[in-house]
Amino acid sequence: MDLSFYILGLLGVTATAIVLVIGLGSFGKGGAFHRKHSNTLMRLRLLFQFIAVVLLLIFMYLRQGA
């Protein structure tokens, strides 16, 4: 059971990294895509990052046996 939170946490970290790379790429390139989607990408990254941290904290809590 606790392994599923670890796997989901890793997927959250991966999703965060993907959105971060897309956001940095659009920032570096500029243009219409960046103007239209930069705030959305930042919010999405923060959401994925929050979810990943929560899932990994749940994994660590369950791992302690508490």
UniProtKB/TrEMBL annotation:
Name one matching Pfam family. HIG_1_N
User: Which terms are listed as keywords in the entry?
Assistant: Membrane, Transmembrane, Transmembrane helix
Which residue range or ranges hold the HIG1 domain? 1-66
Query: Any stretches that span the bilayer, and where are they?
Result: 6-25, 46-62
Family annotation (InterPro entries)? Hypoxia_induced_domain
Going by the entry's taxonomy, the superkingdom of the source organism is recorded as: Bacteria
- Quote the protein name from its UniProt record: Hypoxia induced protein conserved region
Organism ancestry: Bacteria, Pseudomonadati, Pseudomonadota, Alphaproteobacteria, Rhodobacterales
